[in-house]
Amino acid sequence: MWLINYIVSQSDFYISMILRLAAACVLGGIIGFEREHVHRPAGLRTHILVCVGSALVMVTSEFIYYRYSSHVNVDPARLGAQVISGIGFLGAGTIIKEGISVKGLTTAASLWAVSCVGIAVGIGFYSGAIIATVIIFLILVVIKKTQGKITMQKNARLFIHTRIKKGEVNELSGLIQEMGVKIKRTDFVSSEIDGEMVIRFTLDISGQVSMAELIEAILCHEHVRRVYEE
Asked: What is the mean pLDDT of residues 205-214?
């Protein structure tokens, strides 16, 4: 009988816990769905797990506080602080370095942000968690599309087939920059021809130099075999 009375007395806490974990699952899933949709390393399940886990940490912190605060000093924010600092190892796993370019930073940031959403839900700060989720989703979806349109208007991708030679990338980069063109990104693309490498430059062509003039200047380089724009 005492067990039933105890469960009834604790029913409000359990209902609140279930609601918080369910809310964390939904909010984390919203952000995770967007990451899954664009085929990122950390997708739907990862974001849900991070958010629910963070929420559980804060629910546990609250439980410990009410259970033991009368006996010892308990800081309910301590476990949450460990989540914020500890999520970095998971975010680092989504960051991939390809050549001199780095990918996965946005996904790492979304994981960190989702953990903060989970902490907010876990402590019962629903309004803050929902508003943050909406803002994060808009940043990942709306701003990405807007940024993509701006990038398409200003950027061009130039593919250069050249001999594999030490310092060749630096020489070509210097040549492009001397023409007054800004290099925004450099990637290496595999080549089917032995002794040849393909370098893909993402360029800001908003200056006065035309693409035709730039290609003509690059073709004058002794080791360049082919140049084309995508």
From this structure: 73
* Partners of residue 230 on adjacent β-strands: none
- 209-220 burial: b if 16+ Cβ within 10 Å, else e: eeeeebeebbee
The DSSP secondary-structure symbol of 192 reads S
Tell me which of 81 and 68 has the higher pLDDT: 81
- Note the pTM of the prediction, 2 decimals: 0.60
Distance CA 158, CA 175 (A): 13
Tokens of 35: 């990451």
What CATH superfamily is the domain 153-229? Answer: ACT domain (3.30.70.260)
- pLDDT of 100 reads 46
Phi, psi of 100 (to 5 degrees): -105, 5
Using the structure block, give the residue that is written with the tokens 């476990």. Answer: 79
pLDDT at 114 over 80: yes
| Nearest Cα to Cα of residue 202 among 187, 180, 218 | 187
Residue with tokens 């009988």: 1
Taking each helix axis from N to C end, the angle separating 105-122 and 78-86, rounded to the nearest 10 degrees, works out to 170
- Residue whose token pair is 């067990």: 3
Q: What is the mean pLDDT of residues 63-81?
A: 76
What is the chain's mean pLDDT, rounded?
79
Give me the residue spans of the domains in the chain: 10-124, 153-229
Mutual orientation of helices 2-9 and 11-37 as an angle, nearest 10°? 50
Show Cβ contacts of residue 103 under 8 Å, excluding neighbours closer than 6 positions: 95, 96, 97
